């Protein structure tokens, strides 16, 4: 993979030089549009956008989409953790505190309650040089209230004393959660090795140790010194006209103070010292990872926004097709994957990295891997960068822009792009590469020399003594001088096998639309070996289609670890055989997926621009039919699969508890430990046999939709039938995992020990078999529970950083679920708190004063989303495929759910909640996961056999 592809969604910029406002009350200035490429997606053709600068200097963009099912807003400020000052973690802690009360809305839970009750989501993050806050997916009628609450973060936060004391624990728990994650550990080793004069070297997350002296006053001062309108950008998405949205934005963000603060500049300071050149840093991971990274701190001129040389360089270095670096490394059994791309370290420093996922052999022979990469770079430097690659990328950027679909997170996405690009050109440079600068790309490739490279290896098989321990996260690492190796790589010889990519055969030429209609999906075929639905949807008029095939087979049984492992190895081979062409396809907006679905068999999907979709489908089928298994690859993939199953034991305690809960709920389920055992016994003959006979008996469930005719759907069906030939199979022969309802006898829990730090609990209550009535109760009740549960267990009690609740469906059974991951509380204690919360929740539902209002708000927001449930063609087609096969082709299901919910009253909900959460419902199960570190035991009660034993503990 290269660096991330261009964002897919944007809208036509609409603005003139005169004010848009009609009332004359506003004072914002409009910024002229920078892009005049019309949108071709019919749903968005009336979307209008304006860019503005408010009198206080804040810059922003308003997106008016009068039919949008949701609204949202985001704000960024160029203030981040590099400006922490005396107390590490100040910027991050302040970010947390902004959510907890403003002058007009002093209640610490007010914002969360309002957003969650409006069906919305919210979050914020603190980066090195900026912070960003957003709410999204809020129902249109709640937009004004959400914006009013949100905007006050930035001019009248309270930093309430009692919250300051408590919320510090949330940040500390966040830090402790990160300590166990390899990504964070590697980052902190890099920080420790960085130039101490560059702010990158600081510890930025914060913990109790670094933050204990922070008080309300500290936060007010920091806020005043770093949050200023001239450093802010915003974006809003709403249903109002652009004029109204601009006025609302001015009303909301206009009161933010402008202190005319400068941005932080690190332009003349290197992030990493030159002593890291010609040095290999070995880092020990917690999981069994093997990752080699070559990194260069490159001059800032390569940030050229119009020509994007780093993006074009990443496109060829990260290429996965024929004659690519990855192909070569795979052939030599050195690597499993590769990525390349540029990243920003703050506003002024650039890093370019090539990362390789290595095989066991690759770690052993890492010198060969690096040598090959430098040979490959020499091969590319020898030729000139071909213009056709630039043309292809730009053509795809253009159609991706023109055929974009609705994106409920667009305000958040645009706010992030806007702060990077700046208001004058936005969104032109975020979406397009405006000029081809061949020289700049060549010269950038010339920067990638062995002498200026920083080498990092993350692997458990360290070849040197890891004699250093990183200060904050505790990661072990060591430095190896590789001076003589570097000398050898200096005159790396070009290779014939490395070449620039050829013209991409998947780039679409023809984007015309076929005839479509508004009818429900048609059953085109219903005869052995299965069914084919066709759905030429009219609602989303984009030149895209999806081909979805479920090959049900009795050969894969969800409770049989051996069959699951064989299926996983088989799909791995299929993916490997497709890599060289799927990269081209993906660059041309065409994607495929082949996966083992735990209860259906093998599922494959091809979707994207319709014109070449069948071309890709045919290639997928050829590989499914014959994945060409070889012994060398078999050995690599088998080891890789075993490693991934074993890594599951190093996952967070919450993930492990969730996995155990699935094992409890499904009658047939293989845990990662079972799969790890099974994979060891598999031999290449077993896989060959499995792959040859996999489709001997199969039942096909097919769904083809979008910009595609019935003839094309039928020809795809014929392709599948002939490539994967076999005899028909009754769907009854396919073994499906069923859900066992919890017995209504007595609540029960299971305790499990994990080798990681931290504790977790997952708690689930069975509600019974689904119908529309039960499902409505579950949906409305869990939405009403979301905020109070979070407020109680996290904000007030500070039991953990991850605190969540909700509902889920498994098979046809419905459940309510709650989960906490904690570094301070014993799981048994958490269980008691969750139960206590349910009692309070039921009482509030029966008695609290604002419950009627909250019920109406949650219900109307949920109804509004049900009336307009899809943002994209892809999500609609997948949902209709689900209805076709999992819901007996009941394509009216949403209308039925709507009707039931419309009639549902608060009295209904009270009765439902009492039956679901009251003590008469004993269908309750909890999984408690306890980590093994000493800190887990700090507050866990010890059981003593007798009063004397208890009494005499003090004498020990
Ligand atoms: Zn945080």
Automatic annotation (TrEMBL):
Residues 401-677 form the Peptidase M16 middle/third domain. Gene3D superfamilies: Metalloenzyme, LuxS/M16 peptidase-like. One of its GO terms (molecular function) is metal ion binding. InterPro entries: Metalloenz_LuxS/M16, Pept_M16_N, Pept_M16_Zn_BS, Peptidase_M16, Peptidase_M16_C, Peptidase_M16_M, PqqF-like_C_4. It comes from the Eukaryota. Residues 216-392 form the Peptidase M16 C-terminal domain. GO terms for cellular component: cytoplasm. Residues 63-196 form the Peptidase M16 N-terminal domain. SUPFAM superfamilies: LuxS/MPP-like metallohydrolase. It holds the Pfam family Peptidase_M16_M. Signal peptide: none annotated. Residues 780-876 form the Coenzyme PQQ synthesis protein F-like C-terminal lobe domain. Keywords: Hydrolase, Metal-binding, Metalloprotease, Protease, Zinc. Belongs to the peptidase M16 family. This is Pitrilysin. It comes from Powellomyces hirtus.
